[in-house]
C-alpha cells in the first residue's frame, strides 16, 4: 500500500487496544502513523472495504461505500461540509472551494485578472495556460493540506468556478465574475477554463489522464441569474423561450457538451415558478435528458432554505430537501439535507434508495479525483508545492493582465515617454490593493498597485502621488490615510528580556479568542499595522506581506490581537489618528481610550480621533483588534499636521506635473455579491448609476482644469459611463481588476512596453441611456445583440498603438445547409510601425424578424503581427450550429433559410469586410 494513501486502511473487528490506538491516531489526523502501525491489514482491503479496490469501477466502489452508511450518515455526506465517518475510515471533506481567477480563500495563491478582464483578452490559448496554472496550484495546495491533516473548506479539489451567467445589465455587481454579455464569448472562455481546471487537452479536450480528473469545475449559476442581488432569494424569472435558449442557456450547454464540465450549481431564483435548485425543467429535462449531463448538481449556498422559506414552493424543510434531491440536486451547500433528509425519508417524502443514487454520484466523483486511491497512482498528486506562487505563474499573471487591458481612447498622449519629468498619479484606486483583486481572490505574495507599477517602470521620472478623493460619497476609505510608519513606532519591552532600542514597530500579541484573554499564541513585533487577510486564511497578509503566525497560530475567524508600544511624533501639532478594522478596534493613548468601536463590521471601517502631540515626546499607545468572522483587516494610520486636504493636494500635484495619470473607478468594496452597505449610486452590491462616482468625477474635472494632459485608467468589473472623459481627455484605459501584477501591466501599456489589444466583453453605454428595468429579464434593448442605440463604446472595441488593414474576405462556398461547414477567410495586415495583436471578430447577421439579434459573434482570433506582416485568418461556420435560433412556435432550434450577412472587423461596430451566405433548407 502506498505510504501516502489518503484513507485509513481497512480495520476488521479488532481488540479494544487496537481500536483505541486507531481512534487516537485518527483524532490526530495521523493516517501515516496508522499505516505504519498496522501494515498487515492492507492485505484485507479488497474484502473488508471494496471501495478501496482500484480494480473496480468508480461507480461500484461508490455504491459499496454508500451501502455501509446509516441513513443519517448518508444525509450528512450530501452537504458541502461532509463529516468524517471514523468506522469506515472516511475523512471529512468540504466540497466548497473557489477558483474564479486563481485559487481563492486558501491563503497564498497567484491572483490573475478578474474573470471579466480575462474575457477582455479574447485569447483562448492564454486562458488555457492560466486555468492550467490555477489547477496546478489547487492540486499542490490540496495535497499540502492533506499532509498537514487538514480537510476543511477551501482545501479540497471541487471548485465552484466558472460563473458563466450572461452579464445582461451593467448594473449587476457580480457581472465582474462573468465572461461578459455574449453567449459565444462566454462559451469559449468557459470551455477553456474548464479544460484547464479538469486536466484536459487544450486542443482536443480529451482528458490528460484517462482515469483521474485533475479537479472538478462547476458551471454556475444555472440558470437565468444576473441580479438584482437584493432579490435573488425571492424572484421568479419568466423569460421568453427564445431569450432562454438563445441567450441564457447556450454557455451552459456548451460547457456540458463540449467542455465536459463535471458539476453544475443551481441558482437561488425561480425559473418559470420552479426553484432553480429543484427544477424538473432545468435539471432533469434539459440538463440530464436533453444535454446528457453525467456529473452532479449542487445548490447555491442555503438555496434549499429558499425553496420553503422565501419561494414558498413547499411548506417545510423536509419537503424542500426531498424535492431538491428528487429533481436532481445531489449536493446541498448548507445544512438542510443533513438535518432534514432523514425526517423526509421517515415521512415518506423520498426513499432511501433515491438518496443512495444521488450519493453514489457524489462519491464516484470524489473517487475520480483520486481521493480514495494511493497517491502514487494519481498523476495530479505529484505536482510539487513549489508551483504555488511560482515565478512562472507570476509572469503569467502579468501577461494575462497585459492582454486584458483595453485602450478605449488615445489622441496621441500614449504611450508616455519615460523621459517625462514629473508624473502625477492621482485617484482613489491608484495605490489600493483591493483595486487589483475584484472578488473571490487568493492572497498574492507581492501585489503591485498601479502607483507602484508606474514608479518601477519610470525610475528616472519624478512620480508624485495624491489620492485626492474617496472612492464613493459617504465612504471614508481607510487607505486614504497614510499608515503610521515603523520609524514612528517603538515596541513595548518584554518583561525580563533585554530591550532592543533599535527595534521599530509595535509588539503584537495574538490570541486564539476574541477577548484578548489568556496566554497569546504568538508574540512578535510588526513594523506597521496594515493587514488585510482573506477569509480563507488569516495567516496570509496582503498589505504587510508577512504572516500572522506559523502553523495556524491564529484561526481563520474568532481571534484577537493587542499591539503595544510607543508613538513618536516627528513634529508638534494636531494629528488625525485613525484605526480601521473589520471587525472591532480600540486605541488607547497614554492610557486614555481615544477610539472605541468594539463590535462587528461588514467591511473595513475607519474610525478617527483628533489628538494634540508634541515632538520629542513618546506616547504610550495600545491598539486592540477583534476579528469575529469572514474577512479580516486592521490598520493604524495618521495624518500629520500641515498636510493639505486630499482634494487640494491632488490638484496641486497635477498642476505641478507634466502629465497626470488619474486612476479611479470601482473596487470589489462597492460592487459585488449581496452587500449590506449602500452608497449613492450603489445598492446591495449592484449599481444604480453607471457613471463614475461623483467624488471622482469632481476631482477628475478639477485635475483636467489645470491644463495638463490627463490619462484616465479605470479599475472596474463592469461598464462605466465615462462620457465626460471621452469628450475631454486624450487617453482612457480600462484595467479591470488586473490581479497581482496589474500595476506592472498597466505601466507596461502606459509606457509602450506592451501594445494593448484587449477588447470590451460588454457594451459601454452612455450615462443618459435609459436602460430597461434591471429586474426585467427580456433581452430586448440589451447588449450589442439587441441594443439599437449608439453606445459610448461598442462590444469588441479596443485600440492599439499600431493599425491593421483587412482585405479579401471570401467563402469557400456561398450556399450551404446545416451540416455543411463553411470556411470564411480574411487577410489581415499590420499597416503600422509597431508589432501588435489584432482581435479579428466574425459576426453573423440573420434575416431579421421574430426577435432575432441584430448580429452575433460567431468567431474570434487574436493574432500577433509584425509591422508589414499579413496573415490569412480562417473561421469555420456550421450553419446548423452557428446560425441556429430558437423557434418558439416549433419549440425547437431551427436554421431559417435565407441570406445571412457575415461581417468581419475589429469590433461589433467597426466592421471592415462583409459577404453573404445563402443558407438552404435541409
Automatic annotation (TrEMBL):
Matches recorded under Gene3D superfamilies: Glycoside hydrolase family 3 C-terminal domain, Glycoside hydrolase, family 3, N-terminal domain, Immunoglobulins
Positions of the PA14 domain: 501-654
Keywords: Hydrolase, Signal
A Pfam family assignment: Fn3-like
SMART domains in the cross-refs: Fn3_like, PA14
Signal peptide residue numbers: 1-45
GO molecular function list: hydrolase activity
Annotated InterPro entries: BXL, Fn3-like, GH, Glyco_hydro_3_C, Glyco_hydro_3_C_sf, Glyco_hydro_3_N, Glyco_hydro_3_N_sf, Ig-like_fold
Residue ranges the record marks as coiled coil: none
PROSITE patterns referenced in this protein's UniProt entry, alphabetically: PA14 (PS51820), TAT (PS51318)
Protein family: Belongs to the glycosyl hydrolase 3 family.
Official protein name in the record: Glycoside hydrolase family 3 C-terminal domain-containing protein
Source organism (scientific name): Pseudoxanthomonas kaohsiungensis
Amino acid at each position: 500500500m502506498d505510504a501516502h494513501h489518503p484513507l485509513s486502511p481497512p480495520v476488521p473487528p479488532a481488540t479494544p487496544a487496537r481500536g483505541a490506538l486507531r481512534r487516537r491516531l485518527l483524532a490526530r489526523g495521523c493516517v501515516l502513523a496508522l499505516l505504519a502501525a498496522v501494515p498487515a491489514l492492507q492485505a484485507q482491503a479488497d474484502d473488508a472495504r471494496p471501495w478501496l479496490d482500484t480494480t473496480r469501477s468508480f461507480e461500484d466502489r461508490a455504491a459499496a461505500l454508500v451501502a455501509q452508511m446509516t441513513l443519517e450518515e448518508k444525509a450528512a455526506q450530501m452537504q458541502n461540509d461532509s463529516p468524517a465517518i471514523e468506522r469506515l475510515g472516511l475523512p471529512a471533506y468540504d466540497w466548497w472551494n473557489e477558483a474564479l481567477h486563481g485559487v481563492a480563500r486558501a491563503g497564498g495563491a497567484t491572483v490573475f485578472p478578474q474573470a471579466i478582464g480575462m474575457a477582455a483578452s479574447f485569447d483562448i490559448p492564454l486562458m488555457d495556460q492560466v486555468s492550467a496554472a490555477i489547477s496546478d496550484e489547487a492540486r499542490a495546495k490540496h495535497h499540502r493540506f492533506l499532509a498537514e491533516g487538514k480537510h476543511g473548506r477551501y482545501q479540497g479539489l471541487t471548485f465552484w468556478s466558472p460563473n458563466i451567467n450572461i452579464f445582461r445589465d451593467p448594473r449587476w455587481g457580480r457581472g465582474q465574475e462573468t465572461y461578459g454579455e455574449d453567449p459565444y464569448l462566454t462559451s469559449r472562455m468557459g470551455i477553456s477554463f474548464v479544460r484547464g481546471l479538469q486536466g484536459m487537452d487544450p486542443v482536443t479536450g480529451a482528458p490528460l489522464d484517462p482515469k483521474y480528473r485533475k479537479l472538478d469545475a462547476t458551471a454556475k449559476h444555472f440558470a437565468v441569474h444576473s441580479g438584482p442581488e437584493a432579490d435573488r432569494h425571492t424572484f421568479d424569472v419568466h423569460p421568453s423561450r427564445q431569450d432562454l435558449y438563445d441567450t441564457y442557456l447556450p454557455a451552459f450547454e456548451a460547457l456540458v457538451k463540449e467542455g465536459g464540465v463535471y458539476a453544475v450549481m443551481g441558482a437561488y431564483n425561480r425559473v418559470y415558478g420552479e426553484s432553480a435548485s429543484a427544477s424538473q425543467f432545468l435539471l432533469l429535462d434539459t440538463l440530464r435528458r436533453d444535454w446528457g449531463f453525467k456529473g452532479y448538481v449542487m445548490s447555491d449556498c442555503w438555496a434549499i432554505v429558499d425553496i420553503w422559506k422565501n419561494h414558498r414552493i413547499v411548506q417545510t424543510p423536509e419537503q424542500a430537501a426531498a424535492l431538491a434531491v428528487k429533481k436532481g440536486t445531489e449536493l446541498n451547500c448548507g445544512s438542510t439535507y443533513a438535518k432534514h433528509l432523514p425526517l423526509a425519508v421517515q415521512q415518506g417524502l423520498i426513499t432511501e434508495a433515491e438518496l443512495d443514487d444521488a450519493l453514489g454520484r457524489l462519491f464516484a466523483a470524489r473517487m475520480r479525483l483520486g481521493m480514495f486511491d494511493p497517491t502514487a497512482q494519481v498523476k495530479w498528486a505529484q505536482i510539487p508545492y513549489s508551483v504555488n506562487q511560482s515565478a512562472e505563474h507570476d509572469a503569467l499573471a502579468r501577461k494575462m493582465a497585459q492582454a486584458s487591458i483595453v485602450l478605449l481612447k488615445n489622441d496621441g498622449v500614449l504611450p508616455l515617454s519615460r523621459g517625462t519629468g514629473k508624473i502625477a498619479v492621482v485617484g482613489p484606486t491608484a495605490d489600493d490593493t483591493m483595486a487589483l483583486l475584484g472578488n473571490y481572490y487568493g492572497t498574492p505574495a507581492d501585489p503591485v498597485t498601479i502607483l507602484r507599477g508606474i514608479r518601477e517602470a519610470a525610475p528616472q521620472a519624478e512620480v508624485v502621488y495624491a489620492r485626492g478623493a474617496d472612492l464613493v460619497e459617504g465612504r471614508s476609505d481607510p487607505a486614504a490615510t497614510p499608515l503610521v510608519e515603523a520609524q514612528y513606532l517603538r515596541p513595548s519591552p518584554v518583561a525580563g528580556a533585554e530591550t532592543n532600542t533599535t527595534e521599530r514597530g509595535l509588539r503584537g500579541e495574538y490570541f486564539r479568542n476574541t477577548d484578548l484573554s489568556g496566554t497569546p499564541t504568538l508574540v512578535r513585533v510588526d513594523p506597521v499595522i496594515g493587514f488585510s487577510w482573506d477569509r480563507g486564511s488569516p495567516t496570509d497578509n496582503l498589505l504587510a506581506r508577512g504572516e500572522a503566525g506559523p502553523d495556524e497560530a491564529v484561526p481563520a475567524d474568532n481571534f484577537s490581537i493587542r499591539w503595544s508600544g510607543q508613538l513618536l511624533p516627528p513634529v508638534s501639532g494636531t494629528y488625525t489618528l485613525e484605526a480601521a478594522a473589520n471587525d472591532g478596534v480600540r486605541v488607547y493613548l497614554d492610557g486614555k481610550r481615544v477610539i472605541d468601536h468594539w463590535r462587528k463590521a461588514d467591511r473595513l471601517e475607519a474610525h478617527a480621533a483628533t489628538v494634540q502631540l508634541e515632538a520629542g515626546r513618546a506616547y504610550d499607545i495600545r491598539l486592540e483588534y477583534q476579528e469575529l468572522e469572514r474577512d479580516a483587516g486592521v490598520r493604524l494610520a495618521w495624518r500629520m499636521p500641515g498636510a493639505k486636504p486630499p482634494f487640494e493636494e491632488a490638484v496641486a500635484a497635477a498642476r505641478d506635473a507634466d502629465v497626470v495619470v488619474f486612476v479611479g473607478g470601482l473596487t470589489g468594496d462597492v460592487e459585488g455579491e449581496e452587500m449590506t452597505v449602500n452608497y449613492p449610486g450603489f445598492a446591495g452590491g449592484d449599481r444604480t448609476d453607471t457613471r463614475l462616482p461623483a467624488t471622482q468625477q469632481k476631482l477628475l474635472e478639477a485635475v483636467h482644469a489645470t491644463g495638463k494632459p490627463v490619462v484616465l485608467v479605470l479599475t472596474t468589473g463592469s461598464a462605466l459611463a465615462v462620457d465626460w472623459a471621452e469628450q475631454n481627455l486624450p487617453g482612457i484605459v480600462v484595467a479591470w481588476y488586473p490581479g497581482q501584477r496589474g500595476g506592472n501591466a498597466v505601466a507596461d501599456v502606459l509606457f509602450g512596453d506592451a501594445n494593448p489589444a484587449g477588447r470590451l466583453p460588454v457594451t459601454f453605454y452612455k450615462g443618459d441611456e435609459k436602460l430597461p428595468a434591471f429586474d426585467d429579464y427580456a433581452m430586448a434593448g440589451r447588449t450589442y445583440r439587441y441594443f439599437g442605440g449608439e453606445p459610448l463604446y461598442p462590444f469588441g472595441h479596443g485600440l492599439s498603438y499600431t493599425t491593421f488593414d483587412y482585405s479579401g474576405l471570401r467563402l469557400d462556398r456561398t450556399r450551404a445547409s446545416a451540416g455543411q461547414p463553411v470556411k470564411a477567410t480574411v487577410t489581415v495586415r499590420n499597416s503600422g510601425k509597431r508589432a501588435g495583436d489584432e482581435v479579428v471578430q466574425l459576426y453573423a447577421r440573420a434575416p431579421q424578424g421574430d426577435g432575432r439579434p441584430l448580429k452575433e459573434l460567431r468567431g474570434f482570433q487574436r493574432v500577433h503581427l509584425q509591422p508589414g506582416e499579413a496573415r490569412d485568418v480562417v473561421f469555420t461556420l456550421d450553419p446548423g450550429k452557428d446560425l441556429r435560433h430558437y423557434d418558439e412556435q416549433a419549440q425547437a432550434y431551427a436554421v431559417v433559410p435565407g441570406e445571412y450577412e457575415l461581417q468581419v472587423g475589429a469590433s461589433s461596430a467597426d466592421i471592415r469586410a462583409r459577404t453573404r451566405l445563402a443558407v438552404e433548407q435541409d
